[in-house]
Amino acid sequence: MAVLRRAGDRWRRLPAATKKQGDRMENKNINSKKNGLGNGGIVQWVLIGISVLFFLLMLVLPLVEVVYRSLKDGWELYASALAAEYTLSALKVTLIATVIALLVNTFFGVAASWLLTKFDFRGKNVLSTFIDIPFSISPVIAGLAYIMTFGRTGWATPFIEQINEALGTDISLVFSVPGVVLVTIFVTFPFISREVIPVLNAVGRDEEVAAAMMGASGFTIFRRITLPHMKWGLLYGMILCAARAFGEFGAVYAVSKARGKTFTLPLEIDALYMAGNADSITQAFAVSSLLVGMAVIMLILKNIVEFYGKNKNSGKL
What's the pTM value of the predicted model, to 2 decimals? Predict the structure, then answer.
């Protein structure tokens, strides 16, 4: 069967074989584009090689080295390093700071996300900008800011002393566990809200408006409509918040000076490594393996949440 092709102002008849050849060339061009911008997928494989090489050199090998160094001198030294008094104290402070920061940031992160996505008010953009402040400020600067605010010469110190006198307490917000908790909350605050806000913006307000017109209360709307929409973004943000809290160093270092009382795991690792002798360095790697294990757990949870979130949104689950 012949086909017609226009040449200038005239149409000329082409044999069917020519048409088949043109179709094959078109399919070949499409496949070339799919396989990596032409050139038989060379660009694609070069990019894969670069990515894998970078991943191995910068991420995998250093973590493997940490695990190897921690176990190099045997399980006995490894177990003794993990069971040391300073290590257990640092683990306790780390867990306390992480759990409290996670609870506080979950509450205020959800509240801020709900406010910014479901309500219109003056200063909305300013509030949204303030949420990102911990991303743009060095953690060390955040720690020093808390010292200048709640330390001996800080403007909040007289109020804290009055509270201590009235209640008979000895509250201290710097160089103490409460100070570690406060700076951890500061540096991890944006993670939850920044994961929830895009989800709620994508959903829109139509369902909430319809429910309100039908007489549903605000809490019912949040519980039955808003929360189910945000739950995967919320879980993802909580995982990121916890992962950052586990590994925070700079801000905590500024407000924590008592080893065995206010040190977290990153600070304990630094203290062991800076001691300089062979045993303490091995112990530093052993304690580091705890953070590596926590990071792996967080990574697994993160991927599980991503998988279920994507499949839930696409209707596969």
Answer: 0.79
